[in-house]
Design brief:
The protein is built from 6 helices and 19 strands. It has 365 residues and is of the alpha+beta class. It holds the Pfam family PEP-CTERM.
């Protein structure tokens, strides 16, 4: 992995040029200062890193009150759209008309895998006509109403693995596929969150993903609902959880590297979202469809987490299995969340920040 630079935050802070502007809707890029990792069609943001950047620029800490501290307790997500949750309490498990209710994810240890295709559908016979089997489904009419004037969906995920036993116990495997279907049930769009057959590892340890990647560079190919299970050397499942680390110079390095001085946790528990994921091409197609007749159109989410039962060698379940339960996936838009003040020069500083991340090339195994 040839990741050269990450951030020179101390230098930016030393400019003394940071002043707050009026509040705006949540900006996952922090005006250009916060990086992402692209997995197929999705851009993934590590929220603990975002919170750290925001705190350095604005103060206030990284806990509650920081706009990138996303509360995922049942009370906090009850008015959002929940795809999967470990809680059994309403209304967090019940979505509005035109949407499947939340799938029940494992809420205790001993269940190493979750899939919308193998878990009892919470809606039974009340499925949408023309949807995909084994998916969480929403009519585009209901989705349009939920999004309102926003033009981007944000998928939030909380990682709730055990903290004991070292880093390997904090990670789990995740993969998702989103399809759009027209009124006749024909697939008109496919969007994958995928490791693309790379090593099951963090990006700094040689895993898949592209730092500051471009989702348009990836195009789905092949059958639906068919991730490469593979081995830990090559799989479509992404490593979720654990930590990302920087050295004293701000470079992204393996957390096992003795020069690592700063770490960002991704295993934050059931009450705080660890990742925010956006699909720019999905958003663009939705906006185009919303301008026309979307009667009986649907969006279908195929979600898988943990050690796939189809894996051949149990050694390749290391770091993949669900071991604690209560992982959650929920949908929001920027305006549904807390407002974020944007420093007046943050966008300009972000240009320099991206330059520092720049030159990072994707490692292919």
């Amino acid at each position: 992995m040839n990741i050269k630079r990450a951030m020179a935050l101390a230098g930016l802070l030393g400019t003394g040029m940071l002043a707050s502007a009026p509040a705006a809707a949540l900006d996952l890029t922090c005006g250009g200062a916060c990086p992402w990792v692209t997995y197929g069609d999705g851009n993934s943001f590590l929220l603990q890193y975002n919170a750290y950047i925001y705190n350095q620029l604005n103060g206030g800490g990284v806990g509650p009150g920081n706009p990138y501290y996303i509360d995922s307790t049942p009370g906090a997500i009850k008015d959002l759209t929940v795809i999967g949750t470990g809680t059994s309490s309403n209304p967090a498990t019940t979505n509005t008309s035109g949407m499947d209710d939340a799938y029940p994810t494992p809420n205790s240890s001993g269940i190493p895998y979750f899939s919308t295709g193998t878990t009892a559908d919470p809606n039974g016979a009340n499925e949408f006509t023309g949807d995909g089997a084994g998916t969480w489904d929403v009519s585009l009419g209901a989705l349009k109403s939920f999004m309102g004037t926003d033009n981007s969906l944000i998928f939030f995920f909380n990682n709730n693995q055990i903290k004991s036993g070292g880093a390997v116990n904090e990670g789990l495997a995740g993969w998702a596929q989103i399809t759009l279907r027209d009124a006749a049930g024909n697939v008109i769009g496919v969007f994958d969150l995928t490791n693309q057959g790379d090593k099951f590892a963090t990006i700094a340890d040689g895993g898949g993903g592209t730092l500051l990647g471009d989702p348009t560079a990836y195009t789905h190919a092949g059958a639906l609902d068919n991730p490469l299970i593979g081995t830990n050397a090559a799989t479509d499942y992404i490593l979720s959880g654990g930590k990302q680390c920087l050295n004293a110079g701000g470079a992204l390095v393996s957390c096992s590297d003795p020069t690592a001085t700063q770490s960002f946790d991704a295993n934050l528990g059931a009450n705080q979202a660890a990742y925010a994921i956006v699909f720019p091409e999905l958003d663009a197609q939705l906006m185009s469809l919303f301008a026309g007749d979307i009667t009986n159109y649907s969006m279908n989410v195929n979600l898988r987490m943990g050690c796939d039962p189809g894996i051949g060698d149990q050694a390749d379940c290391v770091g993949r299995s669900l071991n604690n339960g209560y992982e959650q996936v929920f949908l929001s838009t920027a305006s549904n969340l807390k407002q974020v003040p944007e420093p007046g020069v943050l966008a300009l500083l972000g240009i320099g920040m991206i330059g520092l991340w720049g030159g990072t090339l994707r490692r292919r195994g």
